[in-house]
Amino acid sequence: MNRLALALAALSLPIPVAVSASNPDMTLEEGADRVLDHDKIAWDFVEGITTEVGPRQAGTEAEARGREWASNWMRANGFDSVAIEPFEMETWVPGDTHKAEILSPFAQPLVVQPLGGSASTGPEGITAEVVYFRTVDELRAAPDGSLKGKIAYISHSMTPTQDGSQYGFAGPARWVGSGIAASKGALATVIKSVGTDNHRNPHTGGAGFPDGVAPTPAGALPLPDAANLERMFERAGGKPITMKLTLTPKQLGTTMSGNVVGEIAGRDPSLPPVLVACHIDSWWNGTGAFDDGAGCGIVAAAALHVRHTGKPLRTIRVLMAGAEETGLWGSKAYSAAHIADPIAVGLESDFGADRIWQFQSNFREANPDLHAKIASSVARFGVSNSTMVANGGADINIARDQKTAIIDLQQDGTRYFDLHHTPDDTLDKIDPVQLRQNVAVWTQVVGILANEPGEILPKE
Description:
- The protein is an alpha/beta fold.
- About 35% of the residues lie in helices and about 20% in strands.
- The protein folds into two domains: about 290 residues, Zn peptidases (Aminopeptidase); about 150 residues, Glucose Oxidase, domain 1.
């Protein structure tokens, strides 16, 4: 047996959670209300996968163990069908050496971790002057060639928000910053982590390089170290700041990943299913509890709880997508494989485990009665209605590709970016009470959708 087969053979099978049998006399509302105090399914999933598998870097042996664990868990907990749908992907891994050191004028080490897609400096590292950019727009304005032989440092001013909107404001520092710097000649890029905590935990995440621009080394500093570097620029009085940066990530080439798909069968298989999604992979530096083990536990638990109130009209399909973090590989592969198989509606949980506070759909005007019914049903859980148009999470590309119905159940993101893509993404950060509120809301919403006989998003 190869190493992967041995690892899978040694992995203990998940133990099914004791849950109530199907009770057709229990209304959906009663079932959802009961979840607030009694659900153990979502916690069982996220506790199990973070304990028995841990970090699940896309395309690696660890992600494969995560898929196997999740599929075993689904079978053990009574899903009617479970499958792993493999696909190929280009795989990047972080390597073993992540070091940053200011050599002058204020010599000291800094904490750093590579960004996804970063090139290697080689084990010897690189040494160069650092050029400070307060924003990505400042970097864009730098003359072509002006960063030749230098290291670009990019900052931002992200703050915590309930809706997570500051991620769109600060995210370009990571998403496009290193590519812009490389196009202007930079040897490497370091950024202020796209996050809101004050721990010495860098936030990793994918960095993009445009076509025709070769990837360069790219890393993230934790916020305290980024603030320290910025103070150095204030005190240096115009003298150059020199950094030695050592990052040794690797490109492994083509490897296998896969999507885990499980179903709760509906009474009428001719009706398009309700698709609920999450992603099974995580970055290497945390155990993937918030991002996105909790999301997978929430959607799987909701599907099971709906069935506890009686067999639904429509099939509920749970998609645990593979390889989301490094390029939405699983979402794209699922859509390509199933584009001809219509879904009724798509929903995703991928924003931690804190309480849901707002309901959004993309059919408020096209199907106002159904939108109003769902909004009214979740008000008792403290979830408000919204006029915002839902556009869905990263792992429901198929809903956008099919131009079908989408719902967003917005979670409180106030502390999400304290933990996002960091070593602090661990089980102890999950509040069980808030996790159960998520499952209750999802149970109510998915139950309504799965028993909706009409078209959820009428064609115009």
